[in-house]
Write a structure and sequence with these properties.
By secondary structure, the protein is of the alpha/beta class. The protein is built from 19 helices and 21 strands. Strands 9, 12, 13, 14, 16, 17, 18, 19 and 20 form a 9-stranded mixed β-sheet that branches. An 8-stranded parallel barrel has the order 1-2-3-4-5-6-7-8, surrounded by 9 helices. Helix 5 packs parallel to helix 6. The structure holds sulfopyruvate and magnesium ion.
Length: about 550
């Protein structure tokens, strides 16, 4: 004997051990009153389940409305089957499909049962009307009922078609809806019971529950009864419980609530021509992704996708100490100062890996033994104290043998900045921030005393430059320098050719150059040689950790 399930249903999509058919049957045959919530697609089914409903009503009205057609079998039965399959896939609770008339005669009905079982649907409800049907609340008395014997044969065929003993077939009696009276309703219910139905749905269009209560009294406990109180919704639910009904169907309220919300949002956005005012009221994209199960896919990708070839190598120049950070860099370089619980360098390497920039090379110098991150190879600039950035890059010369990204050990950046850099074609590409953090514009009136690498580019950032080919014209430490349009973020991408050119330049540098030259010096040289250094503009999304307040800001940046 199947035990009735507890009234509270887990809100997750946990797979139950008990088959869905068995659980639906238990709702009919167990103690107390159960509830089915309408759903009309995978998303609404998931929402119903998460709300706590232990079962779902696949409403014909709602499914057809969501498809933009009438509840007159305008959607074909296989189209309905597709929808209900999405609903079953999205949930783990039982679904009772509103199967209208069974979409034809006994033969269509038994084929329907077979297909529903295959798609994980726990039961079907069929009504004793004529195909194509009309919704019970429209032209009700004008709607012809099916011949009782013919419909009983359909129920019998459906029951005999099922493979799973617990698959549920509910016979829906429309006699009250069509104005044929109580006696006819009871007679039909009895014929369908004898044909093998698991339950009877007694439908009513009255505003008061009197006729369904009378039906229940006269019916007794011959079979479980299911009701749809759409019209007599003011009746306290305890009335149904005390009368001994088994299942209440809330038949269309997710579809109707979505409809109201969509009409409101559409009107507001149309009139205001902006999303402001609506954005706060609608579900976040994060919530959409959560309901779609995005996190599961992310995990699965890690488990099942081939790792794929890296798109570039990453070279991190992390030799300097970073004196400005005082005590924090007493015995470790700035790149190892923790931000949000892990060293800056780890954040940088993680950002690279997330964009499939692998084969990571870190140039160490000061306190190199303290640079103990995993998953990178190290090269050392032991002369870090007396040399410049290009000397460090020269230490990694052997790695300049294919596409690579060069960056600093004290610059955090978001994945999207790196992605934009990687997506931009060119032998030399730099990411330039057109709105650096302490300036309204790079060439604005701020004093910009901060030491920074300013970029003069062929065009300032604008909507036009999104499509344009912007080039680097000059690099300067003067924020008000001629043509300055932004701050270089410290990110440089090189193609295979670009890396080769840089390698050659590094080979020509004198000792004196190596003592002082910086990456901006290299960029200037490339420009002066007439090479095309492409610019990809960003706004924020990176952080040069220079001061203690940058370290604090870094926690929020992550
Ligand atoms: C449905 O939800 O499609 C139903 C119930 O059949 S009713 O609309 O009340 O007829
Ligand atoms: Mg219906």
């Amino acid at each position: 004997m199947v035990q009735p399930l507890p009234k509270t249903t887990p809100t997750t999509t946990r797979a139950f051990d008990t088959p869905r058919t068995t659980r639906l049957k238990a709702m009919l045959n167990g103690q107390g009153l159960s509830f089915l919530m309408e759903a009309h697609n995978g998303l609404s089914a998931k929402i119903a389940q998460e709300a706590g409903f232990e079962g779902i009503w696949g409403s014909g009205l709602s499914i057809s409305a969501a498809l933009g057609v009438r509840d007159n079998n305008e959607a074909s039965w296989t189209q309905v089957l597709e929808v209900v399959e999405f609903m079953a896939d999205a949930t783990s609770v039982p679904i009772l499909l509103d199967g209208d008339t069974g979409y034809g005669n006994f033969n269509s009905a038994r084929r329907l049962v077979k297909k529903l079982e295959q798609r994980g649907v726990a039961g079907v409800c069929m009504e004793d009307k004529i195909f194509p049907k009309t919704n019970s609340f429209l032209r009700s008395t004008a709607q012809p009922l099916a011949d009782m014997e013919e419909f009983a044969g359909k129920i019998r065929a459906a029951k005999e078609a099922q493979r799973d003993d617990d698959f549920v077939v509910v016979a829906r009696v429309e006699a009250l809806i069509a104005g044929h009276g109580m006696e006819e309703a009871l007679k039909r219910g009895e014929a369908y019971r004898k044909a093998g139905a698991d339950a009877v749905l007694i439908h009513s269009r009255e505003r008061h529950p009197d006729e369904i209560l009378q039906f229940k009294r006269e019916w007794g406990d011959r079979l479980p009864l299911v009701i749809v109180p759409t019209k007599y919704y003011t009746t306290p639910t305890d009335v149904f419980r005390e009368a001994g009904f088994k299942i209440v169907i809330w038949a269309n309220h997710l579809m109707r609530s979505a409809l109201t919300a969509m009409q409101g949002a559409a009107k507001q956005i149309f009139e205001a021509q902006t999303l402001i005012g609506v954005e706060e009221k609608v579900a976040t994209l994060a919530e959409v992704f959560r309901l779609q199960g995005e996190s599961e896919l992310e995990q699965a990708e890690k488990a099942y996708l081939p790792k794929g070839g890296p798109v570039a190598r990453g070279i991190v120049l992390a030799a300097g100490r970073g004196d400005e950070l005082g005590e924090l860099v007493k015995d470790r370089p700035k790149s190892m100062v923790p931000i949000a619980g892990k060293p800056i360098l780890e954040h940088i390497l993680d950002a690279y890996r997330s964009a499939n920039v692998r084969d990571l090379v870190v140039v160490r110098g000061f306190a190199k033994a303290a640079v103990d991150v995993q998953g990178a190879t190290f090269v050392d600039n032991d002369a870090f104290a007396s040399t410049g950035e290009l000397a460090s890059l020269a230490c990694a010369k052997a790695s300049l043998d294919g596409p690579c990204v060069v960056s600093y050990g004290d610059v955090l950046f978001k994945r999207y900045v790196l992605d934009e850099l990687l997506e931009t074609e060119g032998d030399f590409v730099v990411a330039v921030d057109s709105m650096p953090k302490d300036a309204t514009t790079a060439s604005g009136s701020s004093s910009l005393a901060r030491k920074a690498d300013w970029a003069a580019c062929s065009e300032p950032h604008s909507r036009k430059t999104l499509l344009a080919n912007v080039r680097l014209v000059d690099m300067t430490t003067d924020a008000k320098g001629a043509g300055v349009t932004g701050e270089w973020t410290g990110l440089l991408k090189l193609s295979t050719n670009g890396a080769k050119a840089v390698r050659e330049i590094l080979g020509t540098l004198s000792k004196a150059d190596l003592a002082t030259a910086s990456v901006p010096d290299l960029l200037r040289r490339l420009v002066n040689e007439g090479r095309d250094v492409r610019v990809v503009y960003t706004r924020g999304g990176w952080l040069d950790v220079d001061t203690l307040s940058d370290v604090l800001e870094g926690s929020a940046f992550q």
